Amino acid sequence: MAGDIFAGAINVAQFPQRRRDEDEAAASAGQGWSAISYLIGGILVWGFIGWLVDRWLGTGGIATAIGAVLGAAGGVYLIVRRLGA
Amino acid sequence: MHSLVIVPARDDLPFPPTVEEFFPPALVDGTYPWLTKFTLLVWIAVGLLIVFFLVAYRNPKMVPSRGQWMAESIYGFSRENIAKEMIGHEGVKFAPYFTTLFCFILLTNLFSIIPGIQISPSAHIAIPVMLAVISYVMFNYVGIRRHGFGKYMKLSLVPPAPWFIQPILIPIEFFSTFIVRPVTLSVRLFANMFAGHMILLVFSLGGFALLGANSWFIKPISLLSWALAIALTFLEALVIVLQAYVFVVLTSSYVSGALAEEH
Question: For residues B186 and B181, what is the distance between their CA atoms, to the nearest angstrom?
């Protein structure tokens, strides 16, 4: 509350619930971005780890592919757990 | 086909526009990069906002003047529709920051379509990066202060899942929360303002390039190019407000996530 220096001057009735839909849209936009970052992040992180394994063992790309698939699966799982329901 | 070759009217016409557009020279010799059009615009924006809010709230009335009404509307919007809506009741203490952030981004973005200025400091990556760093440090700080470092990390990084999947999920969570968030926050604002400026340059300078073409069939197309430049300026106005709003909404959603007991 300490930070609310203008509270006294605010006419709260000025901001009724009419914008509810737009606010929910904004919240959903945040969820959408985090869903995208989980999915792409999963593929990138585990694809990169797979690529490092490829370089290390000289397996020529198979570990990158496995990593990317694993990362995508992890990303989907995270979206379901964190954002679903 | 020869007549279709487009030749600029003058050799010094800067078409097509290049990235050089976003590195304006120093205003006074020897001050680069400390005193350029961008730094000057940032200080002007800061000064205008300070003066605007000081004047608007200098003598508040029950029936507000126009200035007071505008300031209250902007603050009330940030407080009721962003802070409270996204974070809940305790979001109110972040409302001053969100208001400042929203106003600063809105005003600096607005410079990109104000005649005579026509470029936004946000079109230079350094400024969105700095804004994102502030938001990044803030949401992590409030999260750590609320939960303590260990519990904050556990809440952020360890999703509700069986233990044997955790090794797969934790790196993804780390990447998504601590790397993707600040990067997308800054790049989204930067890229929108950069692309917007680029598009306006292409269509307005492109009009001159078409006008300078050798063929009389090409010259009239410059009118179409300029008409599009005007239409796209209105689109740019939309993008300006939207990006300022999105930046603040995402910052508040990160703060809300950092304060939450569970995700």
Answer: 9
Q: Please state, rounded to an integer, the average pLDDT across all residues of chain B.
A: 90
A10 in any annotated domain: no
Question: Could you report the per-residue pLDDT of B67-115, keeping only the tens digit for each?
Answer: 899 999 999 999 999 999 888 899 999 999 999 999 999 999 999 999 9
Asked if residue A69 belongs to a domain, the reply is yes
In A, which residues are within 8 Å of B79 by CB distance? 4, 6, 10
Q: Confirm whether the ipTM is greater than 0.85.
A: no
- Nearest CB neighbour to B171, from listed A3, A45, A82: A45
Structural domain span for residue A46: 35-85
Q: Treating both helix axes as pointing N-terminal to C-terminal, what angle do B221-259 and B95-110 enclose, rounded to 10 degrees?
A: 170
The residue to which tokens 């507000």 are assigned: B64
pLDDT band at A67 (very low <50, low <70, confident <90, very high): very high
What residues of B are in contact with residue A42 (Cβ under 8 Å)?
A: 172
- A77 domain-assigned: yes
Tell me how many domains chain B contains. 1
Tokens 């990158």 belong to: A64
CA distances from residue B197 to A76, B13, B101, B114, B227 in whole angstroms, order as listed: 36, 17, 22, 12, 16
Report yes or no: A11 and B69 within 8 Å, Cβ to Cβ: no
Identify whether A29 is part of a domain: no
Task: Tell me the nearest-neighbour CA distance from B256 into chain A, angstroms.
Answer: 11
Contacts A–B by Cβ distance under 8 A: 107
Query: How near does any CA of chain A get to the CA of B168, in Å?
Result: 6
